[in-house]
Design a protein that fits this description.
There is one protein chain. With 542 residues, this protein is α+β, with helices and mostly antiparallel strands. 26% of the residues lie in helices and 25% in strands. The chain has 13 helices and 20 strands. Strands 3-4-1-11-8-9-10 form a 7-stranded mixed beta sheet, sandwiched between helices. A 5-stranded mixed beta sheet has the order 6-14-13-12-7, with helices on both faces. A 4-stranded mixed beta sheet has the order 15-16-17-20. The relative contact order is 0.13.
């Protein structure tokens, strides 16, 4: 290994900084790309699963007589894993397996199952938010709030969110005397290998992973329990077959299967002095910890999951007295990271509340932020660029308004400016102007694509996304009631990249956090009413 490696100077770069097409674009657009759902192996059986209707339930008894009578059905097995249990129907093809699964008569033991609904969870969270939590950040003394001329308080609420990738969860596994071979759209290779090996009592090196394209993931295929991979192997093991087994979750299983972004309630208050400057800020975050499990508990320090408060504890604004607290209640709903993790909800709350403070101070939201970002030059840099390119200082028609927001996640900085208009009784998103600072831009084309997709993903959640529970059962099942943004609803997105010589940083996730608050802030500017609950309810977009 050489002791010193001379690096090229930026003027010598021939590839870095040049836009290039995606190398997989042709394969994906012509259907030649291979996904798990495309895998066909000799003798392969397809497994379709029946999961409990409520988290924590287990099958007590199964009548599979009608399922076994369906042509093509080979076997029905019960299985248990550390996080999933159920009944699987194995057949010579998906449709027979699906029909067999639907023909099962299962008596579920729900004695330990979740019984709460979303309304009860919300009420308990709001009660927690009104009290004190574990202190995450404590600058100065928030008792200075008493000296404020103007005080604002607000409660924000964000729902459980599904990842809802285009390709539902699936996996192919084959057990042999040599070990286990997996075909899967991978996101967590080492962890998956270890968990499969542990289930089978073999060495990790005896688990071979064939990594395929994934039809979306957004964090769902990176699970500390390797839930659906372990489930596939458990089904193959229970069946006692040497044949490959392709386990397929239907869209309904994918929607109701858990490992959602957690539901959160935020209680926040701040005070302004006579000049309209913040003197104190207190923010209490309430929601499940995604790290509260044996596989990831080492990341939880003194009862604080850092992913629950990222974007809140890392607030970039200079406020002399600032306190952030966290409460992490336990629920039976399995939760997981979701694209941009904690910043996805914390930045929505903090950026919306900053706008509320600006309006209370009768200040322009951009100018208000400028004065508070003196110690955060990269936040300020993307904010200034997005505002300039959006024409922030140019007057809009009376039925139009703009909103802006800025956030950092994964060491990258993104600002969005959203312009909306009033159309009849509804609203329309005219355009989104984005600025991103992700350090040295390797491939500007990829950066623009990722920011555009993040805008789409974030708008879907802000406008439509929510998983709700009733008596412990998930109410949504498919894209008719867990809706996502359609192509005709997607606004034009104009992406601008800050020139930088800083180290390259993440770009797959950082475009998500600022889009919901930028949209909500545009609504505040147009209607004078703050948005404190997502998805937007009673507000129609056309």
């Amino acid at each position: 290994v050489p002791e010193a490696v001379p690096l090229k100077k930026p003027a010598q770069f021939t590839l870095i900084g040049q836009s290039a097409d995606r190398v997989d674009a042709l394969e994906k657009s012509t259907g030649r790309a291979l996904y798990t759902q495309d895998v066909q192996l000799p003798g392969m059986l397809t497994a379709v699963v029946a999961h409990p209707p409520r988290f924590g339930a287990r099958p007590r008894s199964v009548d599979d007589s009608r399922a076994r009578a369906i042509p093509g059905v080979v076997q029905v097995v019960r299985y248990d894993t550390p996080v999933l249990s159920g009944v699987a129907v194995l057949a010579k093809g998906f449709w027979a397996a699906r029909q067999g699964r639907d023909a099962l008569v299962i008596d579920w033991d729900e004695s330990a199952a979740m019984a709460e609904g979303s309304e009860q969870i919300s009420a308990s969270y709001r009660q927690l938010a009104a009290g004190a939590g574990k202190v995450v950040r404590n600058d100065g003394d928030v008792a200075a709030m008493k000296t404020a001329k103007t005080r604002l308080t607000a409660t924000y609420e964000a729902p459980f969110l599904s990842h809802s990738a285009m390709e539902p969860l699936n996996c192919v596994a084959q057990i042999s005397v040599a070990g286990c071979e997996i075909w899967n759209g991978e996101q967590f290779q080492t962890v998956d290998q270890m968990n499969v090996a542990q289930l089978l009592g073999i060495k990790p090196e005896q688990v071979k992973l064939n990594m395929l394209y994934a039809g979306g993931s957004f964090g769902r295929r990176a699970n500390a329990f390797s839930d659906y991979l372990v489930e596939t192997v458990a089904i193959a093991k229970a069946a006692g077959t040497a044949a490959p087994v392709k386990m397929v979750w239907t869209r309904e299983e994918d929607t109701r299967g858990g490992f959602y972004r957690p539901m959160y309630v935020h209680a926040i208050e701040a005070g302004l002095d006579a000049a309209g400057k913040p003197v104190a800020w207190r923010h209490h975050v309430v929601g499940q910890s995604i790290m509260d499990n044996p596989a990831m508990s080492s990341m939880v320090k003194d009862g604080i999951d850092p992913t629950s408060v990222e974007g809140a504890a890392t607030l970039p604004y200079t406020i002399p007295n600032l306190r952030v607290e966290l409460s992490s209640p336990k629920l039976a709903v399995p939760v997981l990271w979701w694209r941009s993790v904690g910043a996805s909800h914390n930045s929505w709350v903090t950026e919306c509340f900053i706008d509320e403070l600006a309006h209370a101070a009768q200040r322009d939201p951009l100018q208000f932020r400028r004065e508070l970002l003196s110690k955060a030059p990269r936040h300020l840099g993307v904010l200034e660029l997005a505002a300039a390119r959006a024409g922030w200082d140019k007057q809009l028609p009376s039925d139009h308004a703009r909103g802006l927001a800025v956030a950092e996640s994964f060491n990258s900085y993104v600002a969005h400016v959203v312009e909306i208009s009033r159309r009849g009784k509804g609203y329309h998103i005219e355009r989104v102007t984005s600025a991103v600072d992700c350090g040295l831009a390797i491939n500007p084309n990829i950066i623009a694509m990722q920011v555009e997709s993040a805008v789409c993903f974030g708008l879907s959640a802000a406008l439509k996304g929510q998983i709700t529970l009733k008596a412990g059962a998930v109410q949504q099942s498919n894209f008719h009631d867990y809706t996502v943004l359609r192509i005709n609803e997607m606004p034009p997105v104009d992406v601008h990249i800050v020139p930088s010589t800083e180290n390259p940083t993440g770009i797959g996730e950082p475009g998500v956090p600022p889009i919901a608050p930028a949209l909500c802030n545009a609504l505040l500017a147009l209607t004078g009413k703050p948005v404190r609950t997502l998805p937007l309810q009673g507000i129609e977009f056309v």
